[in-house]
Design a protein that fits this description.
about 110 residues, mainly beta, two-stranded parallel sheet, 1 helix
Length: about 110
């Protein structure tokens, strides 16, 4: 069973999907992962079925105020310093223009906590 649709160009290797933080209020076991021809229920089953996200986590990211579209991270967020930039081209700045890497670490998400 394969859910990875990241290989669009057959002349290039597929993207490696890893070091992410996933969350839904229903929880990891109730999460649904849809692929091209099948669906898997549960984060652990998705990882097992695809081989993706072996270093990823499923937990509340602790955004400041998602109801008001404030997706900055609180000080207790599991996304802090949990990302990686290994072998990935990325911009040097977050959405607010702050440096993405701080003390050699990168946060998961669109804002780097300063």
């Amino acid at each position: 069973m394969m859910l990875n649709k990241s290989q669009l160009d057959k002349n290039r290797p597929p993207a490696i999907i890893d070091h992410n933080l996933y969350y839904c209020a229903a929880g990891a076991q109730a999460s649904t992962w849809a692929g091209a021809s099948n669906t898997v229920t549960g984060f652990d089953k998705y990882v097992e079925a695809t081989g993706n996200d072996r270093h990823s986590h499923f937990s509340d990211p602790h955004f400041v105020d998602p109801a008001k579209n404030d997706f900055h991270l609180q000080s207790d967020s599991p996304a802090l310093a949990a990302g990686t930039a290994d072998k990935v081209s990325m911009g040097e700045l977050d959405l607010e223009g702050s440096a993405r890497v701080k003390s050699g670490k990168i946060d998961i998400g669109c804002y780097q906590r300063q």
